[in-house]
């Protein structure tokens, strides 16, 4: 059945009619902290919400041994017991339309010192057109938007003609193993929508990421004899300076990487954690640096890893001639970046839907952050449309998402579902 303007207006009106409920549900999801390995309560809520909509439900714990067989998997340093994915599947009576995955991640980054927040990071307060809280923007508002966009199509008296998988995955913030596990479980479709906080725009390209730990060795002594020892923490700063040199080298190469030429600093090396020494009055014998570095699309993690480990192996002494031994291990992401090639049918459908809602053309941009879109583009060969609402301070204090933007993005996704999957009129009750 051809999607008419009258159908579109019914869908948009359905989003508005349920929007207060949508925001309330998002607040409830934000109030359930879902930092790494503690996602169960949030996944319980989402499982029951999807089940209540009559979807065919699937929930499973991630399997690190199975994931380790895949080249795109990240290293795992935590237990995956009770770390689960939730997928609700809509199957039309007769499947005549294209299939779709609506993907989002439920895990959030740690909140940091709570006294630096204006309110508790789990209050989910609404103020001045913003919904606050850890994970509000990244990306619980988008995760809920997927569900309510699907609702809007059906509440408009229409039935999608294509199969739809609504996915809530874990591990996006650290390995990407959640979306990868769903793919390995057999969930595939003709297109994917991921409503990450992307400023009402479409992501054209993004970097890959490697997480790794560098351990630097020292020689312990009593501080009264410091000159006879060698401080591993001091040595770690020297090693870091060499890695900063590699970071600069890779940034200097941006002109050779499509879509990254105009970014100021696409390759970022972040020192996420430092841990070293055993005693305040002992010259430290060891220091660990937990690091994250970005890669351009087309640069394989294996090649980048060889470069990193080769650099560390080549560090023999510091500037004073002290011997240095630095060794790296993988700790999380081991992911290649991706480019969303222009001109796909799915992108055109999103552009049409966005323009209907926003009244202007859809813009695209390149981001130096990680996104699960790489799983679907690299390993399933399907377009992954990463497109979502305006947010501020994600991963920071007082994270927040624009409520007006969430409304409009939900409308865009709802229209996209109808456009992409096709619709039929629901039978009269």
UniProtKB/TrEMBL annotation:
Alphabetical list of CDD domains matching this protein: M20_ArgE_DapE-like (cd03895)
InterPro entries named in the record: ArgE/DapE, Bact_exopeptidase_dim_dom, Peptidase_M20, Peptidase_M20_dimer, Peptidase_M20A, YodQ-like
Domain Peptidase M20 dimerisation: 205-312
MF annotations from Gene Ontology: hydrolase activity; metal ion binding
Tagged with keyword Ribosomal protein: no
Cofactor(s) this protein cannot do without: Co(2+); Zn(2+)
Keywords: Cobalt, Hydrolase, Metal-binding, Zinc
PANTHER family: ACETYLORNITHINE DEACETYLASE (PTHR43808), PEPTIDASE M20 DIMERISATION DOMAIN-CONTAINING PROTEIN (PTHR43808:SF25)
Entry's family note: Belongs to the peptidase M20A family.
Protein name as it appears in the record: ArgE/DapE family deacylase
């Amino acid at each position: 059945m051809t999607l008419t303007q009258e159908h579109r207006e019914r869908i948009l009106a359905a989003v508005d009619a349920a929007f207060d409920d949508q925001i309330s549900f998002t607040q409830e999801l934000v109030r359930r902290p879902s930092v790494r390995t503690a996602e169960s309560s949030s996944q319980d809520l989402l499982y029951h919400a999807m089940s209540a909509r009559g979807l065919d439900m699937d929930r499973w714990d991630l399997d690190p041994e199975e994931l380790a067989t895949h080249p795109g998997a990240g290293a795992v340093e935590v237990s995956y017991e009770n770390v689960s994915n939730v997928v609700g599947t809509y199957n039309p009576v007769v499947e005549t339309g294209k299939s779709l995955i609506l993907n989002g991640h439920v895990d959030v980054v740690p909140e940091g010192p709570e006294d630096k927040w204006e309110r508790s990071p789990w209050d989910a307060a609404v103020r001045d057109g913003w919904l606050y809280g850890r994970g509000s923007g990244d990306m619980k508002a988008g995760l809920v938007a997927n569900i309510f966009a699907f609702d809007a199509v059906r509440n408009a008296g229409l039935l999608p003609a294509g199969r739809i998988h609504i996915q809530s995955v874990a591990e996006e913030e650290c390995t990407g193993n959640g979306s990868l596990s769903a793919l390995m479980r057999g969930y595939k479709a003709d297109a994917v929508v991921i409503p990450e906080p992307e400023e009402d725009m479409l992501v054209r390209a993004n970097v890959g990421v490697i997480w790794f730990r560098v351990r630097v060795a020292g020689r312990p002594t009593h501080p009264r004899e410091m000159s006879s020892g060698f401080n591993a923490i001091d040595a770690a700063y020297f090693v870091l300076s060499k890695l900063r040199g590699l970071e600069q080298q890779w940034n200097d190469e941006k002109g050779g990487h499509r879509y990254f030429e105009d970014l100021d600093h696409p390759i970022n090396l972040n020192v996420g954690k430092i841990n070293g020494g055993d005693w305040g009055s002992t010259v430290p014998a060891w220091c660990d640096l937990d690091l994250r570095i970005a890669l351009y699309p087309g640069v394989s993690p294996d090649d980048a890893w060889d470069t990193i480990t080769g650099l560390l192996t080549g560090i023999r002494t510091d500037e004073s001639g002290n011997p240095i031994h630095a060794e790296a291990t993988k700790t999380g992401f081991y992911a290649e970046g991706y480019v969303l090639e222009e001109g796909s049918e799915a992108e055109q459908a999103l552009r049409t839907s966005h323009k209907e809602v926003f009244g202007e053309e859809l813009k695209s941009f390149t981001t130096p952050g990680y996104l699960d879109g790489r799983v679907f583009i690299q390993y399933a060969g399907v377009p992954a449309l990463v497109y979502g609402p305006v947010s501020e301070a994600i991963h920071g204090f007082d994270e927040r998402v624009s409520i007006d933007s969430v409304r409009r993005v939900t409308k865009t996704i709802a229209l996209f579902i109808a456009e992409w999957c096709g619709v039929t009129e629901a039978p009269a009750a």
